[in-house]
Amino acid sequence: MRILIVSQWFQPEPHFKGLAFAKALQARGHDVEVLTGFPNYPGGKVYPGYRIKPFARETMDGIVVTRGYLHPSHDRSTRGRIANYVSFGLSSMILAFTLRRPDVVYVYTPPMTAALAPVALKLMRRVPFVCDIQDLWPDTLAATGMVGNRRILQLVGWWTNFALRRAARIVVLSDGFKRRLVERNIAAPIAVVPNWAPPEIAALAKSASPPTVRDGEPFRILFAGNMGKAQGLGTVIDAACLLKKRSVDAEFVMIGGGVEVDQLRERAEALAPGAITFYPPRHPSLMGEMFEQADTLLVHLRDDPLFEITIPSKMQAYLAIGKPILLGVKGDAATMLARAEAGLSFTPEDPEALANTIMTLMSMTAEDRVRMGKSGALFYQEQLAFDIGVAAIEEQLRLATTSER
């Protein structure tokens, strides 16, 4: 098949369904091309070696990549984010018609504006597309507070439904997502394909020594990733205060960027000095030492009904690493953790629940914690690994082409 991948994010930006995914499809005998934007995520600043222009083409490890104009932005500004999403959607739609006609398009969302090009190719050239949904729009926009304007949310909802009703097939990351789309009367076949860990994380896990008991104190809780409104990380600061009052020898390590970082750091310094250490974002391939030094890995999202059907992408990364997980997410993510027997769950946005769960984990023997980590790693390899996910999406792309004949 000749496959066009449309994604606003692509390497050198951190993107787990980026270059490695494209190369895997190519290795399976497909002709793969990529349509993306100029790299600026997560900081909103264009990467060194790139500059914004109408378009550019390059070849990355044998994959032809066309980059379209976008307005670089990734901060608190709603207008900036809208400009970022819409500018890429429009430029990619135009550029799509300058590329060779593909047999099928794979589009990664969010943002749903990335679907402009696939929808246009479907309507004008009858090219089928498969839409991979990582966030449900407009639900996520409302839940995270990114957009509060009712008219904008209604417009986004209309466009999302319009695009999805023209997809040949849809890929979602959880059963909850599938149920929600069925409720919205989306008729396209929907396949549940859980995410895999970023290739760099999987490589770290593969090369790491078998999990062992970590010597030394304090008990270290690691959070790595975006620190935005959806993560609700004020709960961590409040839990750190509780643990400090109880004289529990625990330390939080927070690695990453995001719109909430500065506010969180200031609040932590004021309320729980010395209990939380912040580090700037680092490439996944450089996370090995931080994972090694962690006793448990933290996942947390706000207590919102939308997140009950969400499985955060760091779940797969943490499972692959093989350390016990502290999970503050209800629903499908908690179900996955229970199936993997890889950690403990607590009620999201409940500092006392988090503090108590940390103390429960600390009270377990180190061998039991190691057993949890090994169980998670085995679950990942058997259920969620890269090759399993790629094969599942490849099958959806193949079915999309046959359904249009």
Explain what this protein looks like in three dimensions.
The longest helix is centred in the N-terminal third of the chain and has 19 residues, at 78-96. Strands 3-4-2-1-5-6-7-8 form an eight-stranded mixed sheet, sandwiched between helices. Helix 12 links the parallel strand 13 (325-328) and strand 14. The chain has helices at 19-27, 78-96, 116-125, 139-144, 150-164, 175-183, 199-207, 234-245, 261-271, 288-292, 313-321, 332-340, 351-363, 366-384, 386-403; strands spanning 2-6, 31-37, 55-60, 63-68, 104-109, 129-133, 169-172, 190-192, 219-224, 250-255, 276-279, 296-300, 325-328, 343-345. It is built from 15 helices and 14 strands. The mean pLDDT is 92. The chain folds into two domains: 2-196 and 385-403, Rossmann fold; 199-384, Glycogen Phosphorylase B (Rossmann fold). It has 405 residues and is of the alpha/beta class.
Keywords:
405 residues; Rossmann fold; eight-stranded mixed sheet
- How many helices? The count is 15
Strand order of the largest sheet: 3-4-2-1-5-6-7-8
Mean of residue pLDDT values: 92
Q: State the secondary-structure class.
A: alpha/beta
Number of self-contained structural domains: 2
The CATH H-level homologous superfamily of the largest domain: Glycogen Phosphorylase B
Shape category: globular
Give the name of the CATH architecture of the largest domain: 3-Layer(aba) Sandwich
CA radius of gyration: 21 Å
Which stretches of 5+ consecutive residues score pLDDT under 50?
Answer: none
How many β-strand stretches? 14
* Estimated share of beta-strand residues: 15-25%
